[in-house]
Amino acid sequence: MAEAIELIFYYLVFPGLAFCTILGLVLSFIDRKVSAMVQWRVGPGPGQPFFDVVKLLGKETVVPEESWARGFLAAPYVAFGAAGLAATIVWLAVLRIGGSPPGDLIVVLYLLSIPAIAVIVGGAASGNPLGAVGASREMKLVMAYELPFVAALLAVVFQTEDGATLSLSGLVALQDQAGSAMGRVSGVLGFIAALLCCQAKLGLVPFDIAEAECEIGEGALIEYSGPALGFFKLTQAVQLATLPALLVVVFWGGMGPGPAGVAVFALKMLLIVTIFVLVKNTNPRARIDQALRFFWGPVTALAFAALALAVLGV
Amino acid sequence: MDAECLGNRLTEKFADRVEWTARSKKRLYLRVDPAVLEEVFGALRSELPQIRLCTSTGLDTRGGVEVFHHLSPYGLPLVVTLKIEGRKPLPSLPSLGRIHSAAIFIEREISDFLGVDFVGHPDPRRLLKARAFGDDVHPLRRDFDVREFKRGIGEEPEF
Amino acid sequence: MKQVIRIGPFHPLQEEPESFLLTVEGERVIDVDAKLGYVHKGLERLCQERTYDMIPIILERICGICSVTHSVCFCHAVEDIHGVEIPPRARYIRTILGEMERLHSHLLWVGLAGHFIGYNTVFMWAWKYREPVCDAFEWLTGHRQNASLLKVGGVRRDLPVDSFPAVLKVLDELEGQTKMLIGAVLDDPVLAARLKGIGVLTPEQVLDWGVVGPTARASGVKTDARKDEPYAAYAELDWNLIVQPEGDVFAKAVVRLLEILESIRILRQAIAKFPPGEIDCGPLHVPQGEGIGRYEAPRGEDIHYVRSNGTNMPSRVKVRAPSFVNIPSYRASCIGGTISDVTITLAACDPCYSCTERLAAVRRDDGGPPLSFDDLVRLGREKTRAIAREMGRKPDLGLEIRP
To answer: What distances in angstroms separate CA A186 from CA A168, A314, C200, C340, one per listed residue?
Structure first.
């Protein structure tokens, strides 16, 4: 019983939904502030992302007549729940709470793709032609970045000579002994490939093609309003708190002991988020065919190069 | 090529079906028989290959509606105006939009505001006139009464 | 599967009322239709009931960006009827105003184009660079827009010559910033991938649709009313016509960016050569007749037809803004592209819907009677004062605000 309560606490409060939502909103404030600095604007105050969400949660959800209402309304909550579960598993590994079960890396990979699928379902269910275009773009994008993302993560798994582990805490433990995966060429290449995939997973420019507000008016999210839209925004925040943490855990040695370890981990997270923001602000949006070509070409090549080098032990 | 020279060339070709005045070297005004509008445009194209329609002006006159096609070649200080006139109450004129795409929008506008029927127009739909105006109300006609119109208005705009 | 996608009736980005109906198959656009007329102002009819002195000020309100364009063009048309030559100082003033307008209009477009393809940094930077240009416009005329400076036969007020050094300083800064922007645009591989080869207009299509201005010049067609039929002081100044052969959106961006540099060149020369003398040629009686005025607006050739019946009011004023011929060319440039390409292609001719439709009234939200001129002036002053209070300083307008 106590174990069950502990698990529910992990999922709902710390380090799961509540913690990651707040952390994600803080990170999205950093995103907005850094963007503003790049663009010579003042930018919002630190409370703004919270106000936005509170405002959305207090509004009415309008369900379009033409939509498949159940799918349309379920999508954001499914996305949020799945993102929260992925966040819990990743952050438990970060905080070194308990030994994670074998193969949880694969579970995380699956859970991380559920929000994208929810966006596709929601967009297609909305009955809006622009939503359908957004959903089809999101679908193409998912197919484009998933393969290199998995390949890049596997590069780290295959770095270990004596038997690979697919457990996140196992990866952290291995890096504690042998130094972080970024110490090797294969680790660096894999990290770069995974970083680019995360840019697309987070829906940031140049890969915000599925939401392109100037072309298809937020695409799949076009018909969403009120709490439903708010939960999609919260999902994005949770992902913003999860993906950089996942990258640090897999490629960069997780969190060290003591306050110093926490500080170093926070710096690593901030660095990754800043890279996302800078890439976002120095690029125009790619076209969907260009994004496909980019991920299936150079990024996949990079990821598989990392994988090959990892197997060779470089 | 200046206005006078061009006017003479066209008179040679079309005799009394065109009649020209030139207010300066840069401005040529040609009164054209609507029946030969396309031929005159073709002749202008062969004299000045870069000529295109700048715009057209519609003007309500006593007995009819006049349409002035202002043509100008790229890169030259010359504006040639072809004046054609259709008789009221239902003025009907040949369409230049059939052979020159630049005329499509402006002819739609003129038929909105002055009620000219452009024969052979590729896309004769309403362009600018608000939905509140009926199809047979033409606000640039002299007999259009604003006060009368305001009394009848009250429809919601249609998107 | 065919679907109709609607952009509008209020464009999400241009914040202008128009509607584009894209018929798409998947992402490919197979047909485009435009719906216009949401803001028709009836200005042509209004002009038939106003005197020649009032019309330049009305026409300034056609467009928020090209405030100088339509007034000058109308003046050209009336001066064509009259055959009058305006004094040199007035010609130089018109040149300076026109080029200042081109500067801020092109910068505005660069920003919007960046926004259209999701490049918000370019958007913010270009609009930041535009700000000092509007300030300089204010130093010269007293207003950032709509200076009411033009009249038939000259200009109404002289330019304050002592503000020229400050304007030149703004131009110096802008030149460096524009060169940086040009470098950033020309060298960015993602921008090139996004803009090259899309929305192509061939020279034949340009001729068929009568396209004008930078949109035509980017297709290798040498057309510019400033060179074709030199007015104001352009014949006396040394400047180049910017022409690019490719015809795609990238070429249109390049033409506009390089034209910013040319405008800076023209402005420097015009300020250096600024002649003394009269600024208008006195009261004019407009004889019976008809005239056509041409003017190179930032978006292309503007043309006005004026018919006079010998009274103090014209019997017909026809306004043709450049966007009226540039917008229809979407039929040639958009069909066959993808949705992503079409939004930027539609934006690439720098469309201006107010110009296209020519009309406005300030209506109150509560359905009361339209606000009068005095109301608007009062509201404007109240707002200025409120902003000044908020920023904790006195309004720095150079003018005293009467209570």
So the answer is: 18, 6, 43, 36
